Amino acid sequence: MASVFSGAPPQSGPGYSFKQTPTEAPSGTRQHGFYPYTDNGGSTLGISGADFTILAGDTRHTSGYNINTRYAPKLFKIGGEGPDNKGASIVLSVVGFAADGEALKERLDTIVKMYKYQHGKPMSVAACAQRLSHILYGKRFFPYYVHAILGGLDEEGRGALYSYDPVGSYEREQCRAAGAAASLIMPFLDNQVNFKNQYVPDSGSGHELQEKPRTPLDQNHVLELVRDAFTSAVERHIEVGDGLQVMIIKKEGIMEAFHPLKQD
Amino acid sequence: MGSPFSINGGACVAMVGKDCVAIACDLRLGMQALTVSNNFPKIFNYGDVYLGLTGLATDVATVSDLFRYKVNMYRLREERNISPQTMANLVSSSLYERRFGPYFVSPVIAGINQTTGKPFICGFDSIGCIDFAKDFIVSGTASDQLFGTCEGLWEPDLGPEDLFETVSQALLNAVDRDALSGWGAHVYIIEKDKVTKRLLKGRQD
Amino acid sequence: MEVLLGITGKDFTIVAASKAAMRGATILKASDDKTRALNSTSLMAFSGEAGDTVQFAEYIQANIQLYSMRNSMELSPTATANFVRGELARALRSRRPYTVNLILGGYDKIADKPTLYWIDYLASLAPVPYAAHGYAQYYCLSILDKHHHPDIDFEQGMKLLRMCTQELKRRLPIDFKGVVVKVITKDGIREQEYEDDVKVAIP
Predict the structure, then answer these.
(1) What is the percent of chain A with per-residue pLDDT over 90, rounded to a whole number?
(2) A56 and A167 share a domain?
(3) What digits encode the pLDDT tens for the residues A185-197?
């Protein structure tokens, strides 16, 4: 009985679109259940720096305990041209229900493209961020079941990062983890990116204690943190693994990299 | 009312270092969202062994009292302290005795075996299944967060001072992302013939 | 809408309990005493399910007094609190548990310090500087968080209690008919006069 309380992995989490087992006896009326949502697991993470933004996401795609594929990207370039999204300067990451994520990406991509064609200039991240919020809120009563993170560079060329809940509440942040392993990654990021709970040695006690000043992090250092965060999450979360897709947005363009993760 | 494990809240973590171990807990006691006490330690000492208990507060008290009784009886019979390994088996069998009406606790053990001089940590589920770990053990409502911070910060063969910093940062940053844990912490650094207990101030929200 | 409050200071513990005995929305009595003295330095205030409260309190009272008679000494407030918790915890896993919330005020004559214990119906025990049960928790703990200090004298303690009861009068939707106030010091337990019909301004 206790093992029930102490939480076997999918407590109420992973499920399927269609009920696998009948809930009623074979006789009598047959009931069919359709659940429009599935949790496809995975995790994403974004960190913004002085002149860059890094977004990352694992590429495992799951349903319950099954791995559907080991390579399903969660990071999408928005507003680029052609099959390679040339010239894009905004990246959207989505985690949660992958089909909704894909649909959301298509919608935002189209909107950002149309903006460019109509106005003859690319959309700013701030505008794109607000537009994304409106798209999400537009489906307030049948939401896109995703936790989105949008990354790019703001008008001053600084790294910009926006995170969203499924119904469009959004906020610009320094860093954000989302998805299945968000609870594992986020406190680590608080500590290593925003230096939470770190103080200047011998700076006093109680309220005199000086917080360690937040300094803009170097790109390679941030990349190391991202890879550390994911290798850690892979160790302890079954829905995270297989591969790590990373995009670095700089004024020169978007660099994309792929790092293998453990497949167990 | 939700799971009995998350009514009162709380977090505990144990880590292995080089010839030392650390165990730490938060200090909150709550009833759902209401904080009742900010001085409710969850680590209990039994000679050479330290036991951390998270979960339902009433069972934390009952189980810690029960083991005080059992360990005292052991010491009287054997005329020696209980070793961490023996304590682990005592905890396991005592919890399994209540297999179909368990104590809603997630115990963590840390200590140094005085015969071998080797560090020892382990954790349990509420019915006594032992988790022998070489690195760290986490428990409580912030266990997800603790897994993240420990996996990210811990490295092998840390000395006592570095282990203190590691376990403290792992706990403080984890409980700051859990509404049911926090309000300061107790940290024990256990070496062969020295134990250092420190009280950490944390965020008061 | 039962109110239990406890406040410690530098040499005293104040325990207050509402005087209304309620059944549903009906007030059966307006001079109920929801406290029992366990010995000369321990006082227990209780709230919860109708029959359980007095039954449990008097069972505890009898056993603590029996201990005093058998051993020609009184159990310390800490020992009393742990005994009470033990009995409540034992009952919790029995066929019919007691649904009783408790506040245990006391004065430890050996440590020469006031004590206060918060115990809920699950038998969670916490030593605290100030305590409340029921709806009073939501109204009073924040007031006490702001204004309480461990070294306040008795007058300041009573002022704090007044702030709490005024807030309760102001915000609770049902009249709890004022409070019985008991004070535990090194000299024992005494009942404190308490003016219940002080006007409160309701904005």
Answers:
(1) 85
(2) yes
(3) 999 999 999 999 9
pLDDT band, very low/low/confident/very high, at C35 (cuts 50, 70, 90): very high
Is the CB of B152 less than 8 angstroms away from the CB of A229? yes
Strand positions, DSSP E, A43-102: 43-48, 53-58, 61-63, 66-69, 75-78, 90-96
Q: How far is A156 from chain B (nearest CA, A)?
A: 32
Residues in chain B closer than 8 A to A191 (CB atoms)? 149, 153, 169, 173
Q: Is the ipTM of this complex over 0.90?
A: yes
Is B188 within 8 Å of B50 (Cβ atoms)? yes
pLDDT beyond 60 at B58: yes
Q: Are residues A23 and A101 in the same domain?
A: no
Q: How far is B25 from chain A, CA to nearest CA, in Å?
A: 16
Domain check: are A143 and A253 in the same one?
yes
- C132-178 per-position pLDDT tens digit: 999 899 999 999 999 999 999 999 999 999 999 999 999 999 999 99
pLDDT digits (tens, 9 = 90+) for A162-180: 999 999 999 999 999 999 9
Clarify whether residues A135 and A239 are in a common domain: yes
Contact A186 B174 (CB under 8 A): no
Quote the number of domains for chain A: 2
Q: Is the pLDDT of residue A219 over 80?
A: yes
Judgement on whether residues A114 and A20 belong to the same structural domain of the protein: no
Q: What is the pLDDT of residue A5?
A: 44
Residue B121 in tokens: 């940590």
Closest CA to C9 of C79, C165, C114, C143: C114
* Full-model pTM: 0.94
- Asked if residue A208 is part of any domain, the answer here is no
Answer whether residue A204 is part of any domain: no
| Average pLDDT score, chain C | 97
Angle A182-192/B160-175 helices, nearest 10 degrees?
Answer: 120
Interface mutation vs chain A, best among B98, B131, B145, most A CBs within 10 Å: B145
Q: Which residue has the tokens 């509404």?
A: B179
Q: Are residues A165 and A59 in the same domain?
A: yes
Domain for residue A144, yes or no?
Answer: yes
| Structural domain containing residue A161 | 39-179+215-260
The Cα–Cα gap between B68 and A253 comes to: 64
pLDDT at A21 over 80: no
Distance of CA A55 to the CA centre of its chain: 8
Which three-class secondary structure state does DSSP give residue A13?
A: coil
Give the domain CATH number at A256. Answer: 3.60.20.10
List, in order, residues 6 or more apart from C159 with CB less than 8 Å away. none
Residues in B touching A206 (Cβ below 8 Å): 201
